[in-house]
Specification:
Bound molecules: (S)-N-(3-indol-1-yl-2-methyl-propyl)-4-sulfamoyl-benzamide, zinc ion
Number of strands: 15
Largest sheet: 13 strands, mixed
Strand content: 25-35%
Radius of gyration: 17 Å
Length: 261
């Protein structure tokens, strides 16, 4: 039972009633102000070892569309940057808006993007399961990539072409052999800060790694996201999945660090 959503009654402003951590000290997303980010020369580059990456399935959980990976070994990990060890890729998913250029969760000096991709990794060196990691202070590392409206993204077609199979909440389909490396921008320059899951249970367990350089997607490709529904196949209503983003949360004294390369 997921009583939370993005509507007027069950949206981000109401989440604190069931999840009081929503008003915690390290909540996400945030508005990133580049001039205020601390330039940290000790921050090494992020290393993505995605070569033996293999996706398993794609599914619609009523809140987003998620591509899951086999995380039973360290074949697909990220390391370096602010991380003390390797974190395993578990899934990636998106947040997006309706028409226009809103829809991202993080913002940059108030600028919003049409969508934001989250690559979710967990600290398998320290935690036995993803669920445990998701509740631990250094359990997760999420790479956020902004999607800006512009030319079409050829790597995104395979994903948007699969959306018809997962139109309804609760639907899942095979989605093998997709490597998210093709969704990365040219530069891995990033901002990093300690934060949380941006959806309930809002655990404060995420080291955020937000890439500065967006990738571009076409309006037509964004339209495909908006054909996904939050309703189940058996339900009468057909409510589109859109505007599934949480607005920026108070920084509460946290430092955002900027990488140099
Ligand atoms: C943590 C929750 C599931 N939520 C997430 O995994 C999650 C991941 C990333 C983000 S975001 N938008 O910040 O990148 C938000 C939520 C429940 N849960 C607990 C154990 C568990 C095991 C498998 C699946 C879900 C599980
Ligand atoms: Zn997310």
């Amino acid at each position: 039972r997921d009583p939370w959503g993005y509507g007027n009654e069950d949206g981000p402003d109401a989440w604190h009633k069931d999840y009081p951590i929503a008003q915690g000290n390290r909540q996400s997303p945030i508005d990133i102000i580049p001039e205020e980010a601390v330039h940290d020369a000790s921050l090494s580059p992020i290393f993505l070892s995605y070569d033996y990456c293999n996706s398993i399935n794609i599914y619609n959980n009523g809140h987003s569309v998620i591509v899951e990976f086999d995380d039973t070994d360290d074949r697909t990990v990220i390391r370096g940057g602010p991380l003390d060890n390797a974190y395993r890729l578990k899934q990636f998913h998106f947040h997006w808006g309706g028409k226009g250029n809103h829809g991202s969760e993080h913002t940059v000096r108030g600028k919003t993007y049409a969508s934001e991709l989250h690559l979710v990794h967990w600290n398998a060196a320290k935690y036995k399961t993803f669920g445990e990691a998701a509740a631990g202070p250094d359990g997760l590392a999420v790479i956020a990539i902004f999607l800006e409206k512009g030319d079409e993204h050829r790597g995104l077609h395979k994903i948007t072409d699969a959306f018809y199979m997962v139109k309804f909440k609760g639907s899942v389909a095979d989605f093998k052999g997709f490597n998210p490396k093709i969704l990365l921008p040219n530069s891995l320059v990033y901002w990093t800060y300690p934060g949380s899951l941006t959806t309930p249970p809002l655990h404060e367990s995420v080291t955020w790694i937000v890439l500065k350089e967006p990738i571009t997607v076409s309006e037509k490709q964004m339209g495909r996201f908006r054909m996904l529904l939050i309703s189940g196949e058996e339900e009468d209503d057909r409510t589109r999945m859109e505007n599934n983003f949480r607005p920026p949360q108070p920084l509460k004294g946290r430092k955002v660090r900027a990488s140099s390369n």
